[in-house]
Amino acid sequence: MPHPPATPPLDLNLLPGTPPVLLAEPTGDAASWAAGYRDTLRTLAVEHGAVLVRGLGLHDADQAGAVFRHLATGLLTEREAFAPRREYADGVYSSAKWPPYQPMCMHHELSYTLDAPGLLLFACLTAPGSGGATAVADACAVLDALPAELTGRFEREGWLLTRSYNDEVGASLTEAFGTDDRRAVERYCRGHAIDFAWQPDGGLRTRQRRGAVLRHPVTGHRCWFNQIAFLNAWTMDPEVREYLTDMYGADALPFDTRYGGGDPIGEDVVQVLNTVYEDHTAREPWQPGDLMVVDNVRTAHSREPYEGPREVLVAMTDAVHLTARAPGAEAIAS
């Protein structure tokens, strides 16, 4: 009985300071290539935290979406977004709309939800003239490098995300919840351990406490898994922070983070978090047609400032189901 043709060997480049880069032989059919290497790419993402595939020649949203669907176990619909996105197709989104000159610091996508994506898929259709890399950082190494006293407090208390929804900054109520029906929003909040309060002007304020450390669902390794630094007011550009504080008040910022017990997080703590992230950052500039597969539990990611047009599509899959945790309870993905 004839044997099936052998799978061509993969050319994987492992260089310090960059995510693993896999050089794919162009076939003209990126979706079929992705289907053939699906298990390999997913294994590499678990092993290394992320893998960038170069050579597929992704050029439009339909092609990227087909690749995403071959790699996914079903594409997820985003809820509780912090910034608006364009939706190209079910589960296929633009990058979050964020000013090009401002960085999006390291974070784990939707780590404040109870159904966070375990795997992220990115496709670069247009690379910017400069900057704009989707950098990554190993969450296990970050946890080990952070001061034990600091991580111990967050493990005991968790972290608190506060949000004030409006139509001017960040995702609107409708964009975040997929509806403007108050009863539907309230049902969602009650079902996802989110405290909420409607404001006299019709706005919504929410508070949700989550764990800061998560065991990886495959390896069992402990990972620093949160958006404590990224969504904290001290990470904002000083002029932006001052403007938003003047406009909304310090207690009603569009988003901010605190210790799980409600105490504010100092600027020095946020600086420590962001410095440790930077010390463990790996980056590779986008090239048009690139694909990137990121383990969202093992790996934090960022978006660096850029100049020129940039179009990077994203999809989310492999939901990690979490439960609302009491202080001191360690989060375990399932």
TrEMBL record:
GO terms for molecular function: oxidoreductase activity. Residues 36-316 form the TauD/TfdA-like domain. GO terms for biological process: antibiotic biosynthetic process. Keywords: Antibiotic biosynthesis, Iron, Oxidoreductase. Its cofactor is Fe(2+). It comes from the Bacteria. The keyword Oxidoreductase applies. This is TauD/TfdA-like domain-containing protein. It comes from Streptomyces paromomycinus (Streptomyces rimosus subsp. paromomycinus).
